[in-house]
Amino acid sequence: MDSLRFDKKRFRSQVVSDSCGIEAGEIIEGVIFGDVVVIRDPVKAAKVRAFGFYGNFLNERSPEVAVECFHSSSNADIDGTISSAIEWNKRQSCDSSLYLSMEECMYLAFDLRILQVIENNIRSSKLWMYFVNLYGQFFIQRYAVYRYLRHDGWVVRSGLLYGVDFLIYYQSPCNYHSSAGVRILSDVNSNLDNKFIALNRQLNNVKKSLIYMIVEIPRNVNLNKVECLEKIVVTHMTYHYRRL
């Protein structure tokens, strides 16, 4: 069974809550730094996050401070120890900006048309060439896969934690574990035996499926225009998690 077609979680992430607050025609402004776009307005950042769980806040997973870390022989007073821990906790980042990856930026700017890059001499109309000049076909493959998965109804997040390109979720990762890890194949004919065994075992241990994405870029396509995405073919192979 193909999890992209039959998984019970499919398409539910396309239902956007009315509480996200983004009105028809509203444009969110962002600033680009390298391969990251930052939305500085905290209200608009919260709207984009609620719209489809895009981007990351620097302080969204702030570590808890252990009081024991501040205890020493010279600081036997428990009140002083707690005060030191509280003071240290206050030093954590208070940045309320939302940081978007290059795939998220492109999707919001071109597919959903709610994001506009306004600074650093990069306009939304030039975003495609900006990222292509930075990463070439690496970016094109990643964005083609990201777009494919988003259109198929998934929330797509970084897969760095599990050694894959993306993780796909049913709605918010705050409420659900990811369903599968996604790995992009640049060479279909490459020997995948060892990599497949390692990845499949790792993901199976955390109850996730493994999906290999194959991106086929025709030779006669002009990659300097975002319209080339319509001619790029994305297919996939799914290896399901099996309960042992």
Describe the model.
This protein is an alpha+beta fold and 244 residues long. The protein has a single domain (28-58, 96-238), classed as Trna Endonuclease, Chain: A, domain 1 (3-Layer(aba) Sandwich). The protein has 7 helices and 10 strands. It has helices at 3-6, 42-52, 78-89, 102-111, 127-135, 137-151, 193-205; strands at 28-33, 36-39, 56-57, 98-100, 115-117, 155-158, 166-169, 180-185, 209-216, 233-239. It has a 5-stranded mixed sheet, covered by helices on one side. A 5-stranded mixed sheet has the order 6-7-8-9-10. Strand 6 and strand 7 form a beta hairpin. Helix 4 (102-111) crosses helix 6 (137-151) and helix 5 (127-135) packs across helix 6 (137-151). The longest helix is centred in the middle third of the chain and has 15 residues, at 137-151. The protein starts with a helix and ends in a 5-residue tail after the last strand. The model is unreliable at 8-19 (pLDDT under 50).
Give a short summary of the structure.
The chain contains seven helices and ten strands.
Task: Tag the structure with descriptive keywords.
single chain; 244 residues; alpha+beta; Trna Endonuclease, Chain: A, domain 1; 5-stranded mixed beta sheet
